[in-house]
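One thing: could you explain this record?
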Amino acid sequence: MMKSFQRSALLLITLSIFFFIPVSISVPFILLHGIRDQCSNGGTISFTQLLSNLSSSPGSCLEIGNGEQDSVSMPLTQQASIACEKVKQMKELSQGYNIVAQSQGNLVARGLIEFCDNAPPVLNYVSLGGPHAGIANIPKCTSPVCQLLRTDVYSDYVQDHIAPSGYIKLPNEMSKYLEHSKYLPKLNNERPTERNSIYKERFTSLHNLILVMFQGDKVVMPKESCWFGYYPDGATTPLLPPQQTKLYTEDWIGLKTLDAAGKVKFVGVPGEHLQMAHDDVTSLDFFVFFSRLTIVISLSSSMDKSFKRSALFVTFAIFFFIPVSISVPFIHLHGINDQCSSVEAMSFTQLLRNLSSSPGYCLEIGNGEKDSMYMPLMQQASIACEKVKQMKELSQGYNIVAQSQGNMVARGLIEFCDDAPPVLNYVSLGGPHAGISIIPKCPAGASYPLCQLQETEVYSDSAQDHIAPCGYIKLATEISEYMEHSKFLPKLNNERPNERNSTYKERFTSLHNLVLVMFEGDTIVVPRETCWFGFYPDGATAPLLPPQKTKLYIEDWIGLKTLDDAGKVKFVGVPGDHLEMAHDDVVKYVVPYLQNQLSFSS
């Protein structure tokens, strides 16, 4: 009986301690990364693990879609919706959780807090460089994404396909912003007739809100947006601190309420976007797991990568400003390791449509990214040919804009495609028309055996049939091997004396205009003069011949000389690396020519 009593007493004491003494349980956290990042990146994995180690709290990076690409091309409402469903399915978050978010990830974080129904509560929220009040200018770059943002930021297409458009808030276009922006006006309860008290209620339920602004930030502009500071409607001065904005004074989302309760911490640190010194991090003692965290991540370089593409896109679009009664459609042929569904290709095609007021299409071959690398070019050209012939909208003729390797397919369409509609104007951007004289380094993630095959047996049947670039590799010291075994470029350029085809030349010379753009700093297409059909003499690597001194030109194998004599070839050289072109160069070298060639008979 004594033992029974002892067991009962012990159980009673144990239960009493468990139920009546406060027990500290680690609160889990999630990390929401910024634009052009993904949870599987080494830096993001390390960041998440570091947070977990320093806080002794379980944590995970919450991915949305494929991460890197979807962070750019998926609208923020959809990103927030996916995040919401994921959070609700994570049992470990069911009692509440903390959020740490970087840059654009903060817009998703706030979507979780304000929009997510029947979800576990967010307890503490640390915002690192979040554009909470919007950004007042469009990034200074020349990519198709930038061009679309500059010209049609509040159009349905841009709002639905480019995530940053959801928080671009141009002070001098407030009526358009409030009417057409699909994310930030809702998130900030800015529309007077649509203010939702539930969003405010959920936001004010936070235990702590830590807003970190980087004082040298050149990505989020104005940087005070990280604190909810912004400009007055319709003006770009003065720059209002958060406490003087209508969002705060009228308490649209509860920021004033939280601040009055001492729950908002406005933290300013030196450094550029998402760069924080160790001492500044350790001063953030508001969050146990964040107290000793060191962060040195540069999102600005990620954005440069996201947006860094060719400013030549302006050139192409202007090319199609042709005053004819019927708009001439165009097709876009992307380069290697790209695909029509990528945000860059989609934006490029849409930009061309917008600027030219002409219907346009990105023509995909196979699955795009992989097949552009591993499908032989003859097969790619054949698929493109059949697709073009099935497109009724091209039946009266069409224009082509092609990038890099896409120019091989473009010329295959022009020269090889039987019973096809005519190509009227052809703009070539960095095309390896005369071949490349070095074997390119394999891209990250490429199959090593195939890369090795390309390097050691470029003219073997296996390499020619399975690696697309092998079709235009022309090693100057192996001309006999190239002439005998290369399966694409010798045919395309009518190089084999006993196989020259007058039909190919006839079709090529039927072009109305041929614009050949060479990038003077090109380190991808070597020699860069191949973009103009320049190359080395057979069997030698010097001298480098300009196009007019090559046999292809002098003997007019494909009609390049004929076109040039007729004034239909434009040799354009611009500074910059492969597919990079400054706006001023577009205006100086391309726009005048396109403006002078405004009419043709279709």
Residues 205 and 256 are 13 Å apart (CA to CA). Confidence is low (pLDDT under 50) at residues 1-24, 285-325, 593-602.
